[in-house]
């Protein structure tokens, strides 16, 4: 029961942070600005998250001991997930008519003459 409550507490924290971010991002003052630093911050936080996950996995003796037996399976699963994700993005982007930057891939005449 304690684990369940701790999980709910963590979930509430995550949802609260997402809601706070959405609230801040929806403000006109923020929406009109180009937040160039945000991409760097996301990259740093993602690298930190991956690092801490690696430390946690490396500290688990059971996982380290079974790496030899699960290594190939994990690699195959990872490659299939990666290929499936790339394929899904390509298909969805094509269905939505978007280019690589997420802009409409329609010619300028169809968009009302606006420049890309």
UniProtKB/TrEMBL annotation:
GO molecular function terms noted in the UniProt entry: L-lysine efflux transmembrane transporter activity
Keyword annotations from UniProtKB, A to Z: Membrane, Transmembrane, Transmembrane helix
Keyword Transmembrane helix: yes
Annotated transmembrane regions: 6-25, 37-58, 70-92
Name of the protein this chain belongs to: Lysine exporter LysO family protein
Protein source organism: Intestinimonas massiliensis
């Amino acid at each position: 029961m304690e684990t369940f409550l701790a999980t709910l507490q963590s979930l509430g924290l995550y949802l609260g942070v997402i809601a706070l971010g959405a609230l801040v991002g929806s403000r006109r003052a923020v929406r009109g600005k180009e937040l160039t630093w945000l991409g760097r911050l996301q990259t740093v936080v993602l690298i930190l998250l991956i690092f801490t996950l690696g430390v946690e996995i490396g500290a688990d003796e059971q996982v380290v001991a079974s790496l030899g037996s699960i290594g190939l399976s994990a690699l195959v699963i990872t490659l299939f997930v990666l290929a499936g994700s790339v394929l899904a993005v390509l298909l969805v982007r094509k269905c939505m008519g978007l280019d690589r930057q997420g802009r409409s891939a329609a010619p300028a005449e169809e968009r009302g003459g606006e420049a890309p």
